[in-house]
Amino acid sequence: MNNKEFGKQFEKRTKTFAIKIIKLSASIRNTTESMIVKNQITKSATSIDANFREANRS
To answer: Considering the entire predicted model, what is its pTM?
Structure first.
């Protein structure tokens, strides 16, 4: 596997991971505490994919 193939595969995996986390956070009850956790975990999961894509396009 070369770098280009790895990059495409990794981008796909990080996008899938972000989607799974968003679905998980949607299933958590809406309490004050859970809203904080949901917000933070969603930001963290989606930033991985966004940062990887940005690094590859520059």
So the answer is: 0.78
